[in-house]
Amino acid sequence: MEEKGNISIHTENIFPIIKKFLYSDHEIFLRELVSNAVDATQKIKRLAAIGEYKGELGDLAVKVAVDKDARTITISDHGIGMTAEEIKKYINQIAFSGATEFVERYKETGGDKDQIIGQFGLGFYSAFMVADRVEIITKSYKDDTEPAHWTCDGSTEFAIAPAHKETRGTNVVLNVNEDSEEFLEPARIKAILDKYCKFLPVPVEFEGEIINNPNPIWTKQPSELTDEDYKNFYKELYPFSEAPLFWIHLNVDYPFNLTGILYFPKIKNDFEMQRNKIQLYSRQVFITDEVKDVVPEFLMLLHGVIDSPDIPLNVSRSFLQADSSVKKINTYITKKVADKLNEIFKKDRTAFETSWEDINVFVKYGMLSDDKFYEKAKDFVLLQSVDNKYYTIEEYKALAQANQTDKNGQLVLLYTTDQDKQHAFVEAAQNRGYDVLKLDSLIDSHFIGMLEQKLEKTTLKRVDSETVDKLIERDETKESVLNDKEKEDLKGIYEKAIDNKNMMVEVAPMSPDDAPVIITLPEFMRRMKDMSKSGGGGMMFMGDMPDTYNVTINANHSLSQRILHAKEENKERIARQAFDLALLSQNMLSGASLTAFVKRSFELIDKE
User: Fold this and answer.
1) Considering the chain, what is the average pLDDT of its residues?
2) FRET partner for 578 with CA separation of 20 to 30 A, picked from 44, 419, 452, 509?
């Protein structure tokens, strides 16, 4: 006999709100209903394991079927099932008490669903986002119980009648509404199952095929797995990616539950393209790949899987940010990653150095983002010199201490951001016995500033920011072969020849072997320009300012004498040629200036 009734709730119009606001993506309904079916299946397995259910378990696969003609989607399980009384309790009362509270909170927050999604058990009612009518046909595992058929059309009215069902378990039948016809396409259903149900712990069958892997490797102990297992799983997750460098197997059950595998990919400099590759699961049910609050910002460069039952399925951004378990997980993962890198560094430094090109951006990003990570990483972060030798920070300080300490006791570390373009400056520094670092990744401009803040009495200078004699200031002075008047005359000749107010000319005694003209952009000026480009440091206005370069004329070079003793009409011409050669050496000569330089060069050759 059919029983009709009303769901006892205190709020009107629950279903329209659920339909519109429960989830932003309506496809989530399938994840919720399949997850419920998996839970029911696992419960019967547990009851059998402890002897409370003595019947045959049979085929435990959760089956999903689409009938386009009948306009139905059916999710069937062979789990514990329900009696009519249990339907009233779990479907009509308990779940709807959550729905009532959801709507009340929805009103309180002014309609901001993101503040409340994830706090109520509304999974089953996601079915009404796509269905005009939902049916439950179920038979309990308990002996001497009758099958039941529950029907609801999306209002607060329901009907329960006896059903014809031979086996235990539950069929949920969705009669799909007109707005949701896309979900009657098998390809659409298959895509949703592949996305959300790929690793569910119970087989999921669709169109006669098991579409999931119920035993992914993160559910196993590391001792059971080989390197090949980890690599094959990576291929399963990212079929078109290069093999990972190494990985971390996460497995903790206190003070929170967390399993997973994080892979270190080959990151290099395109790290912005690497994000959103970590998949977040809850009991093997996919939740999201937007893991910013679960995983520290810099660790989003990693790939892999994190699974924690402490993170609810219906997560929202605000919920994640406020959740204490999520914060603990965040801290734990940071520590595990740092410990793993340190372990690899100590165990096989050669292999670590070989991987450095691929992971240095990640490590530096972590040091910049997280002080706790910095404290661990400062012992294994590597500095690479232009001759491709690797040093820890302390090793490099010891190397540079003797020869690169200035008159004020400040250690000066020299670096290049482009070894080819700055070759002449690198060579000049090496000729003085200085070592030069290679800091040429996207993140190194920030990394340099961090090192200066963290390291005592240490500064970093790019090799082309000063003439080599001024890079590391000593108490020594060089004698000039020119007297003061000659230096003033030479400076005036160059200023007229250059005729550019952004080129600050000075004449200085240098080695006769150094270039006759050297153009440098001061370190401070260049850093301010870099900061303004990225909108940092309150220096936005500098982005529109032209660069102001220092032009140093080598008083002790033979060309300086030649210019001073040349015919009056040739002095500026020779000076301009020398200046253009200095520009050319730094790829700074172009357009009309380059054309004039080439023409002048041919004229000089012709005169010879």
Assistant:
1) 85
2) 419
Helix 444-454 to helix 523-533 angle (10° resolution) is: 120
User: Under a CB-based contact definition with an 8 Å cutoff, are residues 439 and 415 in contact?
Assistant: yes
pTM over 0.85: no
Q: Which amino acid type is present at position 61?
A: A
> What is the rounded distance in angstroms from the CA atom of residue 605 to the CA atom of residue 333?
67
* Amino acid letter for position 296: P
> Is-contact 200 63, C-beta < 8 A?
no
CB count in 10 Å sphere of residue 164: 8
- 430 and 436 Cβ atoms separated by less than 8 Å: yes
DSSP codes joined into one string, 335-383 = HHHHHHHHHHHHH-HHHHHHHHHHHHHHHHHHHHH-HHHHHHHTTT-EE
pLDDT band (50, 70, 90) for residue 189: very high
> Tens digits of per-residue pLDDT, 343-372?
999 999 999 999 998 889 889 999 998 999
Tokens of 136: 């439950």
pLDDT tens-place string over residues 283-311: 898 888 877 767 888 888 889 999 988 77
Quick check: helix, strand or coil at residue 445?
Answer: helix
At 94, list the tokens: 């308990």
DSSP secondary structure code for residue 414 in this structure:
E
For residue 387, how many other CB atoms are within 10 A of its CB? 9
Q: Tokens 């550019």 — which residue?
A: 500
Closest Cα partner for 548 from 520, 579, 569? 520
Tokens 């949701």, located at residue: 180
Of 436, 444, 390, the closest CA to residue 415 belongs to 436
Cis, bond preceding 255 (omega within 30 deg of 0): yes
Look up residue 405 and give its amino acid: T
Contact (CB, 8 A) for 382 and 391: yes
* Residue 95: how many other CB atoms lie within 10 Å: 18
Tokens of 90: 């779990």
Angle, in degrees to the nearest 10, between helices 28-49 and 186-196: 60
Place of tokens 């397995």: 45
**Spatial CB neighbours of 568, under 8 Å, sequence gap ≥ 6:** none
CA distance 452 to 393: 12
CA–CA separation, 530 vs 536, rounded Å? 9
Distances (CA, A) of 191 to 31, 194, 587: 11, 5, 52
pLDDT confidence of residue 550: 93
H or E segment to which residue 289 belongs: none
Contacts of 260 (CB under 8 A, 6+ apart): 218, 249, 250, 281, 304, 305, 306, 307, 308
With bands split at pLDDT 50, 70 and 90, how would you rate the model's confidence at 114?
A: very low
